[in-house]
């Protein structure tokens, strides 16, 4: 699967749900699905956003993801470069 982020609907980029998306191709996932061991080659995607955008971002991704049960995880940012964090905030407002 090769995501084309620029072609995502305006509901994603227009709503400013994420300041940045990083694509990490080449991920290989092994998992059980409906009792059977599966293997897929995927693109891991990291979305940089804010807590205030979390629900809208997760809902958008779930609605537009090709998987029935996509891996959608929220990881807290405990610390980071001040300028980078300010840029994220400015990009989303």
Automatic annotation (TrEMBL):
UniProt record, GO biological process: response to metal ion
Taxonomy, superkingdom: Bacteria
Any single Pfam family the record assigns to this protein: CutA1
GO molecular function, one term: copper ion binding
Record-linked InterPro entries: Ion_tolerance_CutA (IPR004323), N-reg_PII-like_a/b (IPR011322), N-reg_PII/ATP_PRibTrfase_C (IPR015867)
Family note: Belongs to the CutA family.
Protein name, per record: Divalent-cation tolerance protein CutA
Originating gene: cutA
